[in-house]
Amino acid sequence: MKSVSAEEAVALIPNGASIMVGGFMGVGTPERLLDELVRQKKSGLSLISNDAATPGKGVGKLFEGGQVSNMIGTHIGLNPKAQQQMLGKQITVDLIPQGTFVERIRAGGCGLGGVLTPTGVGTLVEDGKQKIDVNGKSYLLETALRADFALVHAFLADYAGNLTYALTARNFNPVMAMAADTVIVTAEHIVPVGVIAPDHVVTPGPLVDYLVANG
Amino acid sequence: MDAQTIIARRVAKELRNGNLVNLGIGIPTLVANYVPEGLNVFFQSENGLIGTGPIPEQGMAHPLLTDAGGKPISALPGAATFDSAMSFGLIRGGHVDITVLGGLQVDGSGHLANWMIPGKMVPGMGGAMDLVSGAKRVIVAMQHAAKGKSKIVVKCNLPLTSARPIDLVVTDMAVIAFPGGKATLQETAPGVTVAEVLAVTEAELAIPDKVPEMNLS
Question: B141 Cβ partners below 8 Å, 6+ apart?
């Protein structure tokens, strides 16, 4: 784990990279990294995020300057800009069920090829997917999802990179922290080793590549 | 009583002590206001919380404690938080006793369409497909008709949310269940006759000998 500034962290991300961004409607999103992605004008990004948040918040910021070329998510209904860009075919958006979204990422982080889920069987979601019967019940094969970078927001990070999360800001963050080649973390508070008890660590330090310094 | 209150009050009667319940946005959210006295019900918010409480008082909101729409909520004593994999494990894994969702259409065999109007409204399905596929009981809370057009249709022409039929639909006019895969009138709203329900129901509706009035006390 290396300590960096937000500017240095985002400089690592090339144009056209795939990024997984934690957060649910902008809650639990590493806002400072999003601000820096905007400032450094990173473009052609493949965004993997639950939703498009709202204009000016979280990943919503990336749609204002047209920095996203495609997105995989579950809901973009509260960001008119993202909707416009999708309907105007400036971006492609793959909308998938939320439980499937998180399991695909979990599979990507856990070395699995994918998961079998009953969600989406008999709906538009099954188009082009392999259907597999197990013990008389139908499932869709949903393949694993990984990214070049995961941008994660924690509540506490210690100097060793151990992370805990707060309340509903946890959401996709710990799952994404497993599923990218490079994991960049911001935290509300950076604390000495020992403040987070071993039993309370949610994301173990070795998963974190870069911790963004506060202040 | 307005349409939304009728629906929310009637759905609340379906809650049982100890139930784990997920409420969708819109009318379903109102159900939490009418939990019968003395009943202990756990509400899940799919962004990672069991034990959602009321909207916090002015100045008491925490930016990291929100509902699935990103709005501030509170957590009740005994609340638990978890990540999204756990949250949807609870949903898909059959641990949620009741899910209450809004609807665009419910058809005569109990299939639900509630996430997309092709070419018009394509917001994404969020958690709806997992909820309808995985919860033990699925209740749809919606107006009986929109702009004079029945939302209880013969067959959904909007994309389905799940191949699994729902258990119950509660509207401002009626309660309808689907025994044997056939829409059956269970109750009517106060002051509404069976004939009035039939007049605004496109789907074929089985009518039992006795159709009681909704209890909204």
Answer: B7, B8, B11, B27, B28, B31, B100, B101, B102, B103, B169, B170
